[in-house]
Structure formats: structure tokens, C-alpha cells
Design goal:
With 113 residues, the protein is an alpha+beta fold. The protein has helices at 2-11, 16-21, 26-33, 42-49, 67-76, 93-101, 106-112; strands at 34-36, 39-40, 55-58, 81-83, 87-90. The strands form two sheets. A three-stranded antiparallel sheet has the order 3-5-4, with helices on both faces. Strands 1-2 form a two-stranded antiparallel ribbon. A hairpin with a 2-residue loop joins strand 1 (34-36) and strand 2 (39-40). The protein is elongated and about 40 Å long.
Length: 113
């Protein structure tokens, strides 16, 4: 998946952010864009949002994020995703639909997958 995304970014180097990665190797881009599996870093999210459609889901204030929630996301996500402080951005629209149904409550996600 990483290789396909990087190849696409190199082909469509139209945004300023893509220009910043032109001099980097594929390995360097992967290390800067992804923190684990398909989980994006903030830099990766900035790059992706210019090239792909996403679903932004607010996470309720009273919803605590546990490591098990991230492990579950790593397991079920088919496309990259980003975890912000109070929101998630997913590029897998099916996962985005599920998360919207449960109003961003990661604690419920395991029950419906």
C-alpha cells in the first residue's frame, strides 16, 4: 500500500507538498508519512489530504483512546488513517461510514466489526 501511494504522489507532483518529497527516497517518504502500519503522521495527513478524499470523524470528548483501539484500527483499516487529538481522518470510506454510525466512539467499534 505504501508503495502505491508514493508512486501516485510522485506521478501527480502538482501540490507544493509533493515538491517537498521529490528529493526523498521511497523509504524516507514512508518513514515520514506513516507512524505504524497505515496510521499516518501529521506530515502524512497533510500530504494525503491534498490528493485523496477522506472522512473526518469527530471523537466525543468523553471517549478515551486506548492502545487497543489503535491496534483494532491497524487491524481493520484497508487504507491510511490519521488520529488527531479530537478527530479521526480515514481514507477507507467503509470504515468512515462505520465510525460515523457510532459517532466516533472507538470503544464501540470492536462490537460492530
Amino acid at each position: 500500500m505504501h508503495g502505491a501511494i508514493i508512486a501516485y504522489l510522485r506521478e501527480t507532483g502538482e501540490s507544493k507538498l509533493s515538491g517537498h518529497i521529490a528529493a526523498l527516497t521511497d523509504q524516507q517518504i514512508t518513514e515520514r508519512m506513516f507512524s505504524h502500519g497505515l496510521r499516518l503522521t501529521q506530515f502524512g495527513q497533510q500530504i494525503m489530504q491534498h490528493h485523496f478524499q477522506s472522512c473526518k470523524i469527530s471523537v466525543p470528548d468523553n471517549e478515551l483512546r486506548h492502545p487497543t483501539h489503535l491496534i483494532l484500527l491497524d487491524t481493520i483499516a484497508k487504507l491510511p488513517y490519521y488520529c488527531g487529538d479530537d478527530h479521526l481522518v480515514v481514507y477507507d470510506h467503509q470504515l468512515g461510514f462505520r465510525l460515523r454510525l457510532i459517532e466516533g466512539r472507538l470503544s464501540i467499534l470492536k462490537q460492530i466489526t
